[in-house]
Specification:
Strand order of the largest sheet of chain A: 1-4-5-8
Largest interface: C-D, 47 and 47 residues
Strand order of the largest sheet of chain B: 1-4-5-8
Radius of gyration of chain B: 22 Å
Number of domains of chain A: 3
Helix content of chain B: 40-55%
CATH topology of the largest domain in chain A: Butyryl-CoA Dehydrogenase, subunit A, domain 3
Order of helices and strands of chain A: HHHHHHEEEEEEEEHEEHHHH
Structural class of chain A: alpha+beta
Oligomer: heterotetramer
CATH superfamily of the largest domain in chain A: Butyryl-CoA Dehydrogenase, subunit A, domain 3
Order of helices and strands of chain B: HHHHHEEEEEEEEHHHHHH
Largest sheet of chain A: 4 strands, mixed
Number of helices of chain A: 11
Structural class of chain B: alpha+beta
Strand content of chain B: 5-15%
CATH architecture of the largest domain in chain A: Up-down Bundle
Number of domains of chain B: 3
Strand content of chain A: 15-25%
CATH topology of the largest domain in chain B: Butyryl-CoA Dehydrogenase, subunit A, domain 3
């Protein structure tokens, strides 16, 4: 498969690009909801528009009323989300959440997917239990209790956690903290008794919560997939989240680059456009190169994932690490090349820097994924 | 016992008696810094007492001459003063742009009358100063500034706009670069002083990406400045500014001491360090940071005896600020999700992320890294061309 | 069975029958490469047989038209040819600057007579070509070249000097940029072809830091070149050169395939990898190398359908060559003292250190990294100024 | 102590600078001995001149006829050696060898030091046993045999090994390979029976040998310091070698930088001096900054070593790592900025690149020393 979009994908990209620029732009969404101190960190009206475009269920199966699209298509949406810094629960809900639910029963899908597809519901995913991404270690416990389970423990950095109608929780139903087996995924409803949130604003104005589960009683219906056998499904969800975050990062990096090159072509110092200075030209050209390479890695990983290739796992980590490195360079160069105004809240470049940080951390940073590349390569 | 030993004993005794216990605690945040000035709210009585006791002895500016409010200490004596303060952890009694920047400029370029008047005010913490250099169109290219002072005989009438004036909303007076000759680029700028309460002066804080507003936009609308409020000669303010920029760059580069460039691996590791590749980056950072600390020491030692290249502060600022930015990128990575919090008790009001964003200004303010590299290339390496 | 499937079966059968076993071994070093030409010494009979059998079928240049010595394959067929060769590990039957560089230029700019004559010679491995572009004063600034061809009616008389002429001492003919109009910088250069045995042509190998001498200085002293040995129009040789440079950059960048940019961590680790920080650098390199490989694939896919930006090869060359240099720095670190050996059996004649030094030329030859960045800034990013 | 040279040190620097430029220059020494394929890799005549200058015994005690100078002074000599790429056994003999012998008996010092001071003898130091610096592991064995020891094993990367009149060998007299204790240092004479060399030319034209000790019988007289208690002395020798190599690296980096900036001021392309191009100016200025910082770290470490400070060990590793990084950048930028001619053997910049590589590896590269910085810092 050639490493560029098919005609269908190009059409999708065109419509999403226009939609996100018109409706998801920084002023209309990010600044608006930030400045009103919105406790969701995103706008439900736009989420409804996502649904009308068919985007919220794009990864769901056709039998479930979805579009049965793949990670390449989701990546198209995420890149535009990144470019416009659009606050949205798309990644946690329509990419990670839907991927998790796809492994669940008809009942479970019937319970949650219609709301997602209608743009009425939001999902969150709770995996990590400390400040760094460490899905290899899961201590949060779900013990058998009656016909269901009793959930006990806590989860950190659950993006959109407090806004979610259901949280997909990876919990331990057997074994010890670092065992590969013994993991079960649950769809925990918002109103379950014993769930409490410490809802925190992040640097990029998104909301994330540290969630505590205190003897939360769950029906057997809440189980997604097999009891004790959830690691494989969890890995699917993680891969979806990682490549999704990588795609969004390439959008953030590109958006930052675009406004920076525009600035280079308009700002004058020492009697000339600063874009005429060769030192800046070379840095901009190098940055261009890094962004192009990151984008290539991302689309390759998306195709491999969609094709269920064995190489997908490695390439997803390559893509996440590379996208994080390139996007980080883009926002750092962006702020520096903007000079003083780059430090002001009035200009958008600083917002890109904040989103980059948050996304780089989400589902494993460059250090985590480079380590994974080493381990998957056998060293 | 040598004279210096006697001096040390004297200082030690004075400090023991006069430095309040509260003033021996480490400075925790901005609120603990004593800036002085007409409107300054002392945090507590101890802060006020400490400043006043020091001012009475000239210890707020220990190496300034006595007639100007200092203690007239020699370099060796001033070093002893610093060492004895450090020994008991005494806080600086007074911090201000007056001490760090305007003071040195006045000492070099001011008239006797100006020195007696302004330096004593600074030393006693009576007047807080801000700096009016940059303008919206003149950042790195400072000399293209447009704020104009029209000659009206015994005064100028100043019109224009400054930007990045630190704490202009809290300052009493401003030292300001103003164009007084439109025909001459470099030799058409004068260094003026005036009261921020003069009619026509207004300020507007600038909100930064870190969420704080330490800087302002400052507007001048027909501001009257008497002719005796000029430092140095008419149209030669650029000489004063250049001299001052050297001081500012040293200060920002952290070459003047300060410990923010310490190695960080060990600190981070206390909270656990499970990522081997992050650990590797921290180790490489520590190598660079520990080496840079040596450079800071070497630079000060050389500067003291006049061996340092006059443009060396540009190199120090470049290397120090780039390193500090890298340090905070690593601290953010080490902190993970917790460091991303924007406001929370756990993170002391989002301190890691705000500090990280704040460091991004290091390589812009007081001369961008690009300008520093230009200066090094031209003045130290003597490479050809502009 | 589709036409392409039938084609594949045919190729597979032919290869099975005609590719000698020795020619299915991996290429170990320079000596295994078949360059062809008047003076080429075949390493063994198999090498000669393989080249001749391929040449007879047009397989040395499979996608060139049949009248010019090729097999006239479509892009899809040529891909099948490459895949089938790769399947059995068949070596390229013939390598040459004639195939990679002059050929494409002649196909685009040559007269019918030139194509028939020169391309067939190239395809059969009869004539080995070298390239005369750079001059001592004209490296990155190629267009300032001084070698001059004086018009003598039916011929030019060429005088001047070239440098970096690869294998000039082994080549039969040269394609050469020569100034034919001193008044016009860009439009005063012609693209000439001539025999290296023409009186007045001398070569002198240049010893490199790697200890090898693949390049020469080449001197022209009243060299007579007939007027029909020009490619393209008089004084428009720069168009030909630019077209060719694109090909060269793709080749050097490794965008055309080649596996030297593979991830290396796993290879290094086979010999033990005890340094955690070196391991971290290897992992970060592998991330970059694996991502770059995707870029190579994407670029080729896009180029095939005309989607790639025409200046994209400059980006590819920049990124690929810088990465390859970094790769060899890491390989040297991983090899330690053993890799430092300059000549020894253990290191295959000092191969690690010589390869490492060789890579330093990657970002210089065929356009320096600096020139590549200039081109990207100007043509892709459309930044202002030169 | 201020971080610059005292008057005495400045005087030494002045005389050494002149001497090395006159007598130790690239054409006269490195190219000469390389092109004649000299099997020592250095010239004995120059070594004799070193002795006449008093340099060969500069670190030896006054009682032994030396100058009792310190690492700051040795560093002055090494920096000039580096700047001129002077091939010389100074580092292994007068810095590491003399430091080792200082821990030995009067007899031992009397046996070897006079020859060193006269410029007649050369010493080498044999620590590592594989391609990477790993002094924590010493497997080469010395077993008690009669009144002395029998040495069995091999050592790698022994610079000047085959030319040395004595090799200082770190061997194991008890314990297992990675034990800290159980190390003894020996001064093994050139003519000891059972010593064989595989003498190899390195990339920088220096000679190093892989030495095999096959039942080498050694008198008790050959022991330096205490049996089984040699680790501390070995560490002293290593520190001397590391800071010495770091000092030489700063000289190599500076030498490469000097010829590169000169080239930037003379070479024209596109109608202007290439030093006028801002992109190159910024890279040169950054490089200057790195070289200055490395030099500061080196002199700090030298002073700490000379003052027997506890912090010396950490700062020596900082200095070696930083000097290697800065010098490596200097030679890479040097070759690239020279363009095509930088690739030719005719220009000197390539020789700097080769020496950098060799010195960077000697006594631990940047990776080894950064790791040591981490470990000494407690992480």
């Amino acid at each position: 498969m050639p490493l560029f979009h098919t005609e269908d994908q190009a059409m999708l990209a065109e419509s999403v690009t226009g939609f996100m620029a018109d409706e998801g732009g920084i002023k209309k969404q990010l600044r608006h909801y930030r400045d009103m101190n919105c406790q969701d960190g995103f706008g439900h009206a736009l989420w409804k528009q996502f649904a009308e475009m068919g985007l919220t269920g794009m990864l769901a199966a056709e039998a479930d009323g979805g579009l049965a699209m793949g990670h390449v298509e989701a990546g198209i949406v995420l890149r535009e989300i990144g470019r416009n810094l659009t606050p949205s629960p798309f990644l946690t809900t329509s990419v990670m959440g839907v991927t998790a639910l796809a492994g669940g029963s008809d009942e479970l899908r019937g319970r949650w997917l219609p709301g997602v597809m209608a743009g009425d519901s939001v999902l969150a995913v709770a995996v990590d239990e400390g400040p760094k991404h460490r899905p290899e270690r899961i201590a949060c416990k779900a013990e058998k209790a009656g016909n269901g389970f009793r959930l006990q423990g806590s989860k950190a950095f659950v993006v959109h956690g407090a806004s979610a109608d259901a949280i997909i929780v990876a919990a331990r139903t057997s074994g010890s903290d670092t065992d590969n087996d013994g993991i079960t995924l649950f769809a925990v409803p918002k109103d379950a008794s014993g769930v409490s949130h410490e809802n925190l604003r992040l640097v990029d104005s998104a909301m994330a919560s540290n969630v505590t589960f205190d003897s939360v009683e769950l029906d057997g219906d809440c189980v997604i997939g097999e009891v004790d056998g959830g690691r494989e499904l969890l890995n699917k969800v993680l891969r979806a989240g990682r490549i999704g975050a990588a795609a969004e990062l390439t959008g953030v990096g590109q958006g930052a680059f675009d406004i920076t090159t525009t600035y280079l072509k308009t700002r004058k110092q020492f009697g000339q456009l600063i874009g005429e200075f060769q030192a800046l030209q070379h840095r901009a050209a190098h940055l261009y190169s890094e962004l192009e390479i990151a984008e290539a890695a991302v689309i390759k990983a998306q195709q491999l994932l969609d094709g269920n290739s064995e190489k997908a796992d490695l390439m997803v980590s390559v893509a996440k690490a590379k996208a994080a490195k390139a996007c980080n360079l883009s926002v750092r160069e962006g702020v520096q090349m903007h000079g003083g105004v780059g430090m002001t809240d009035e200009y958008d470049i600083g917002l890109y820097m904040k989103r980059d940080r948050s996304l780089a951390e989400f589902m494993g940073d460059q250090y985590y994924h480079a380590e994974r590349v080493a381990q998957l390569s056998g060293y | 016992m040598s004279d210096l030993d006697a001096f040390r004993a004297e200082i030690r005794a004075w400090l023991e008696e006069n430095c309040p216990a509260e003033m021996r605690e480490p400075v925790r945040d901005e609120g603990d810094v004593c800036w002085g000035g007409r409107n300054f709210k002392f945090k507590n009585e101890a802060q006020k007492t400490w400043m006043e006791r020091c001012a009475a002895k000239g210890y707020t500016v220990p190496d300034w001459p006595k007639p100007y409010g200092g203690a007239g200490m020699s370099p060796a004596e001033a070093k002893i003063w610093r060492e004895e303060c450090a020994r008991i952890g005494a806080r600086p009694p007074l911090s201000s742009f007056g001490i760090w920047m305007l003071g040195p400029a006045l000492l070099k370029f001011g008239t006797e009358e100006q020195k007696v008047h302004y330096l004593n005010q600074i030393a006693r913490g009576e007047i807080r100063w801000c700096q009016g250099y940059s303008e919206p169109g003149s950042g790195s290219d400072l000399v293209s500034l447009q704020t104009f002072g029209e000659d009206k005989g015994d005064h100028w009438v100043v019109n224009g706009q400054k930007i990045w004036t630190s704490y202009a909303d809290k300052a009493d007076w401003i030292f300001c670069l103003v164009r007084t000759d439109k025909a001459n680029k470099y030799q058409g700028i004068s260094f003026l002083l005036f009261d921020m309460t003069t009619p026509g002066v207004t300020t507007k804080p600038i909100k930064l990406i870190s969420g704080n507003s330490p800087f302002c936009e400052t507007f001048f609308d027909n501001v009257v400045v008497p002719k005796n409020q000029i430092v140095g000669e008419l149209n030669r303010g650029w000489d004063v500014a250049k001299y001052l920029l050297g001081h500012e760059r040293e200060m920002i580069s952290g070459a003047g001491g300060g410990d923010r460039l310490n190695a960080i691996g060990a600190i981070v590791a206390r909270n656990g360090l499970e990522d081997p590749i992050l650990r590797a980056d921290l180790a490489m950072f520590d190598v660079d940071a520990l080496a840079y600390a040596c450079m800071g020491e070497k630079f000060l030692d050389e500067a003291k005896v006049g061996r340092a290249h006059p443009a060396q502060p540009n190199m120090m600022k470049y290397a120090g600020t780039e390193l500090n930015k890298r340090r905070h990128e690593l601290l953010m990575s080490a902190g993970g999700a917790t460091a991303l919090e924007w406001e929370s008790e756990r993170t002391n009001g989002g301190s890691p992320s705000r500090s990280w964003l704040r460091t991004k200004a290091n390589s812009i303010e007081g001369g961008t890294s690009e300008v520093m590299l230009n200066v090094v290339a031209k003045r130290i390496l003597e490479l050809p061309g502009a």
